[in-house]
Amino acid sequence: MQTLRVMGVDPGFASLGVVVLEQRQGQIQALAANVLRTKKASKKVLRDLRVSADDQRRLRAFWDGLAGIAAVHAPQALAIETYAPQPGRSGGNAWKAAVVYGLVQGLGLAQGLHVLPFVPSDLERVFTSSASASKQAVADVVLGQVTGLAAFLDRLPAGQHEHVTDAAGHALLGLREMVEMRRMMEWQCHERERLCECADRASVAIARARAALLLGFRVRPRTGSQS
Fold this sequence. Notes:
The two termini are 32 Å apart. The chain has a single domain, classed as Ribonuclease H-like superfamily/Ribonuclease H (Nucleotidyltransferase, domain 5), CATH 3.30.420.10. The chain is of the alpha/beta class. It has seven helices and five strands. A five-stranded mixed sheet has the order 3-2-1-4-5, sandwiched between helices.
């Protein structure tokens, strides 16, 4: 099986989890895992700077960080957590998380990657078969499937682990989808070749029949089985 690489992202305006997974010969290895963090500028700085300009600075930091990781590891796809924003929930900064989601989508498209969005419930459904499973239950399954991910977590504060395991979970879902896409493409290629072979045989038979008619001979059916 061809090697596949997927970058998974858990978007957030203060903390963004990012993981790159590689699948080779059935084994899944973590190549990179980190949490990109941005902070609001101090009040002293904001006195001379618009809040929107500070937001642009933070978004640029995310773009540059993700682009750098993509340049190093060259993933083929980007799996990102998406959600349906609900008014009155997640506080007044919910729209900023949505902006980060759009930024990550745009970066994936700009990099020519397959962008694969997943909702949080996909993690619970696929890895635990329970819509009410805890994040820790999902994280335990993800850590059991990805070689080397625990070593990356050891370098990060415990409070940031959730961002990494969520990103890794979405990357795993992305790898599954990429494998299915490859299988479908291989099946389509096989079917196309089979249909072409059938068309070629039919064309040969039609050409022989036409030649026989032009020569004034009657086409006689062959006897015996064909291999």
